[in-house]
Amino acid sequence: MSKRLITALLLAVIVASTAWAQNMPGRDEILIASSLLAESPTPAAGKQTTLALFMEPQGDWHGYWKQPGDVGLASRLTWHLPEGVSVGEPVYPVPDTLLIDGLMNHVYEHPYAVLVPLQIADDLPAGQPLPIRLDMQYLACRYDACVPERATLEALLTVGDGRHNPALSSVFARWRQALPKPLGSRARFTLDEGIMRVSIPLPATLQIENPHLFSATPGVLDNAAEQRVQRTDDHLIIETRPGKQVPEAFEALLSLGNGLGLDVQVARNASPSTNTLIVTLVALGGATLGGLLLNLMPCVFPILSLKALSVARANSSDGAVRREALAYTGGVVVVCVLLGALLLALRAGGSQLGWAFQLQDPRVILMLLLLTTAIALNLAGLFELSSVDVGNGLVRREGSAGAFWTGALAAFVATPCTGPFMAAALGAALVLPAAAGMLVFAGLGVGIALPFLLLGFVPALRQRLPKPGPWMETLRRILAVPMFLTALALLWVLGQQVSANALVVVVGCTLLLGLGLWASGLRQRTLKSRSWMPATLAALLALGIGLTQDNSPSTQTSAPDHQPFDEARLATLRQSGNAVFVYFTADWCVTCKVNEQVAIDRPETQRAFEENNVVVMRGDWTRGDAAITAFLEQHGRSGVPLYLWYAAHSSSAEVLPQILGPGLLSERAYQ
């Protein structure tokens, strides 16, 4: 007899057995006790709270996961809610497996809680009672019997301040720990001669015990089939038999043992597409053009200008200038390729990172801050000894070596943000084959180096450079200003990532470096020996003190009317029919901050949002976030900014331009 027929007969018996079950010995006893608890008895208007459906199987009885397996039934929940209140999708904890007579069950044999988000409309007055009622039908089973049960659960809430019930805080925290966590990287599967092979990105250092893959989509897996597990580098490989209906993508849950689990998005591992070459070429063009625009960044333009001025001052031969241009390009491309290779390698290991990931580490920002400050002080004339400041000394050296390190520095400081044309290109680089992705990163480097490359190979452009003269020293002092502004911006970015005490220490380290550079400049001008010693000691002390500081993040809050990004909350808002504006930003992204001042935070936009009930959701990517990185990847992006507009009752998002006009958002709000 087939497994499908067994299941059908069993369900028929369950439905027909309700009257018989009433006569079972001890039928008055509840087999799975249930209760409805609210995390906050006084949820705030316009906010979200959480309900917990707490289930307690008695004795040998068990309940079922949302996808029960070969037999059983998922709970049927019917909510009765007051106007202005809505619920989201219930979230289940990690289930257990129970194999009975060759049939696999996905069950809970111990007390468990299903968490349900509850959204309160923003126009409900304080003090309004919110009666919540849940009619529930569920199945209680053990090895020899199944009994359908019903329950009606009620909770009376009141619109208030949103404070949590202190008596339940630790309980809800424990229930949340039992929920599966999202795995940002997508898993891939292949089908070959009746074997499904699922490859899940999982760091080799992560300890797991008796892993098992549950499909949340019915019919995808042969639930009772053996699952053979092996680890290859940073991937977990599961081989099993497929079910009768295997889609191109499905949702799954990977149990890691000890009650821990990961929600996994699994997609078919498609064969190489004939369009890969076209996609690669388009991404390469976008990366090159985007890299060219990065030269207008305030921290890159002075470096490029200095190198151009050195060419004007030197009157070098055409061959020498071409060699410098190639060396500069080499430095830019090497840094871009190395950053791209490191990014791809970390992502392959399961890390959820995107472009400019290095600026999500406060230690990198500290080193870049000290280097930028040293360059700015050199441009301002505080010191001249090239050996004092490694970065600036390499930049100001003549010849190919100086050009190479100039390019390397320019590439490193040009990567905080993605810009026009560049965002989609780098997003494509992360999903293309590794070789094609590296080509895109190299194209980004060529775009950054293109102005100096043209200067080296087009004599007509060099002839347009002004003749050397005293004005060059004046321009050099002027170029110190954007470098000081860059240092100030880096200090502000660091202030968003670390505590106030750590920020004070960093300011002290920067002043210490400046003092050392000043002392070295004095010794240099008086022709004293070892003039580099004060700056070297100051730099070592500044780095040593700064790198040992506590890098724990500072407490950040969203703007009062901007909700923090949450994908489940976003789904709930879309179901409720609200228009939603979602934007992703980072404190080190210049484009993001300009857009916020010009378009998002302006009074006209805020007024339009309020009048049309537009909900604003903000994703902060300053220190990285796996959920945000995965969401960006779903929209073909590798970094910020990203702006999405969900019109009321719309089934899809409109991707807005990366450069927002002043009236763009208010126009969308009034449509």
Summarize the structure.
By secondary structure, the protein is α+β, with helices and mostly antiparallel strands. Helix content is 42%, strand content 23%. It contains 20 helices and 23 strands.
Question: How would you sum up this structure, described in words?
Answer:
By secondary structure, the chain is an alpha+beta fold. It has four domains: 3-177, Sandwich (Immunoglobulin-like), CATH 2.60.40.1250; 187-268, Immunoglobulin-like (Sandwich), CATH 2.60.40; 276-547, no CATH class; 562-670, Glutaredoxin (3-Layer(aba) Sandwich), CATH 3.40.30.10. It is built from 20 helices and 23 strands. The strands form five sheets. Strands 11, 12, 13, 14, 15, 16, 17 and 18 form an eight-stranded mixed beta sheet that branches. A hairpin with a 2-residue loop joins strand 9 (129-142) and strand 10 (145-158). It is elongated. It starts with a helix and ends with a helix.
